[in-house]
């Protein structure tokens, strides 16, 4: 494996593979609550960038559902972090935020979608990643759509799988 670029050292706690510990909880005012499993892979090739892939599945049917992948950068010399993300739903986004220790809080700065994406269209996304004291990783995602104000959509806890 390539030596870690020092620019991404503050996020080295993400590197590797994670899987949901227990199924995550999905919700939104307009949909039936659901449970899902998810695997996360964070890797690096010596660039000042972390590469990631997230793959989610229906907890009961195991059917593939949501997938997203992208890149993470840190503004050199700061705690400012950017996620560059592509989702299988046709959404692309830039999220930016701050790293405080092992708590990463992000907000969408730019969203774009395929011209024929289904409504409702997402207008805003916020996420939190936190490495907990017990070594587990927690992710919480909220979103606003054309119909609904910013409301939690996802909450999940992962354990390291490699
Ligand atoms: C529904 C966005 C991640 C599973 C939705 C809806 C939107 C959305 C806009 C429709 C809400 C409505 O009808 O009012 C997003 C965004 C995500 C994300 C922006 C990531 C940032 C996930 C993940 C899963 C998931 C990881 C895990 C399996 C679902 C399900 C529904 C749904 C099952 C309801 C059924 C459906 O309409 O397809 N999501 N989602 N989503 N999402 Fe997500």
Give the overall average pLDDT: 97
Q: Profile the largest sheet.
A: 11 strands, antiparallel
CATH superfamily: Calycin beta-barrel core domain
Beta-strand fraction estimate: over 45%
Terminal-residue CA separation: 14 Å
The overall number of domains is 1
Structural class: mainly beta
State the total count of DSSP E strands: 11
CATH top level is: Mainly Beta
The backbone outline, from C-alpha atoms, is globular
Number of DSSP helical runs: 0
Helix content: under 10%
Give the ordered list of helices and strands. EEEEEEEEEEE
Structure description:
With 162 residues, the protein is an all-beta fold. The protein has one domain (6-160): Lipocalin, CATH 2.40.128. Helices cover 0% and strands 59% of the residues. It contains no helices and 11 strands. The chain has strands spanning 16-20, 24-26, 34-43, 50-58, 64-74, 80-87, 91-100, 103-113, 122-131, 137-145, 151-160. Strands 1, 2, 3, 4, 5, 6, 7, 8, 9, 10 and 11 form an 11-stranded antiparallel β-sheet that branches. A hairpin with a 3-residue loop joins strand 6 (80-87) and strand 7. The mean pLDDT is 97.
């Amino acid at each position: 494996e390539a030596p870690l670029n020092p620019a991404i050292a503050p996020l080295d706690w993400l590197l590797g593979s994670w899987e949901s510990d227990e199924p995550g909880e999905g919700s939104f005012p307009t949909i039936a609550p659901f449970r899902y499993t998810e695997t996360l892979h964070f890797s690096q090739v010596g660039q000042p960038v972390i590469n990631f892939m997230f793959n989610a599945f229906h907890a009961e049917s195991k059917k593939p559902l949501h997938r997203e992948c992208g890149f993470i950068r840190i503004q050199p010399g700061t705690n400012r972090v950017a996620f560059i993300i592509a989702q299988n739903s046709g959404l692309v986004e830039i999220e930016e935020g701050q790293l405080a220790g092992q708590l990463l809080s992000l907000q969408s700065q730019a969203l774009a979608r395929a011209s024929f994406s289904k409504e409702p269209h997402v207008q805003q996304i916020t996420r939190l990643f936190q490495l907990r004291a017990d070594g587990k990783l927690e992710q919480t995602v909220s979103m606003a759509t054309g119909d609904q104000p910013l409301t939690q959509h996802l909450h999940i806890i992962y354990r390291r799988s490699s």
